[in-house]
Each structure stands twice: as structure tokens, then as C-alpha cells.
Amino acid sequence: MNTSRLTSDTPYNYVARFEALMSNSLSHSDPIIVVGAGVFGLSTAWWLTRVGYHNVRVLDRWPVPSPSSAGYDRNKIIRTEYVDGHFSILSQEAIEFWRDPLWRDVFHPTGKICSSCIQR
Questions:
Q1: DSSP class of residue 102?
Q2: What backbone phi and psi angles, to 5 degrees, belong to 104?
Q3: For residues 41 and 44, what is the distance between their CA atoms, to the nearest angstrom?
Q4: Taking the model in full, what pTM does it have?
Q5: What is the rounded distance in angstroms from the CA atom of residue 61 to the CA atom of residue 118?
Q6: How far is CA 26 from CA 19, 31, 35, 51, in A?
């Protein structure tokens, strides 16, 4: 995956900031423990291994997938409408990552339907 394409024109550049922070703090062989095997914990561990850290452990009170995780069931939505702009940018970058062929068996963009009911 070409991560520079995903962040080069965003003001926050989260991936580059994450990689710079980690490279200044730890060596690639230092032990890292991620607490929580939910969406955030597993994605953090995944990113750490992608950028070269090889001593990463994920701990959770449940087996994976964790039934207490927000990502436990199969039906999810990625929303991009946030009041705070950096969350909108981050979610748009996430959508681009999901489009990577690695996730083609689990990511199926379907669109959305918005409806409302007015009671009279």
C-alpha cells in the first residue's frame, strides 16, 4: 500500500507523524504491549508491525475477536461527518486504507440510505 498517497495532501499527516514518533522513541526490537484487542488495539498492533516493530503483543480479557469490542459484529459503517475536521480527514484516510486489496474479502462499500419520519 502506498501510504504517501493517502496522507501527502492532508494537513494532519497522521501516518507520517505516527512513524516519526515511534522511530524516535523505540527501537524495532523493543517489546511493545497493546492493551485491548478491539478495533483500535488490533489496528495499532498491525501498524506497528507494518513499520517494522517485531516484538508486539496484544492483550485482551477475551479471545479475538473480543465480544466487548465495538467491531465484534459484521455490520459496520464508516462515517465521515464530524464537527471536528481532523476526524473527518482521518475517516476519509481510513476509507482509502480499506480499499487496499488486502481487505477485499471484508470491505464491501454499499452506500447508505437516510430516512426520517415526521409524526403528525
A1: G
A2: -60, -25
A3: 5
A4: 0.57
A5: 44
A6: 11, 9, 18, 12
The better pLDDT of the pair 44, 18 is held by 44
Rounded Cα distance, 108 and 99, in Å: 9
In our burial notation (b when 16+ CB lie closer than 10 A, e otherwise), range 42-67 reads bebbebbeeeebeebebebeeeeebe
In this predicted structure, the answer to whether residue 7 has a pLDDT above a threshold of 80 is no
Arithmetic mean of pLDDT over the chain: 78
Q: What is the DSSP string of 8-29?
A: TTSSS-HHHHHHHHHHHH--TT
Residues 90 and 12: beta-carbon distance below 8 Å: yes
How close are the terminal C-alpha atoms of the chain, in Å? 52
Q: Is residue 13 scored above 70 in pLDDT?
A: no
Per-residue pLDDT reduced to its tens digit, 24-37: 778 889 999 999 88
Residues 6 or more apart whose CB falls under 8 angstroms from that of 67 comprise none
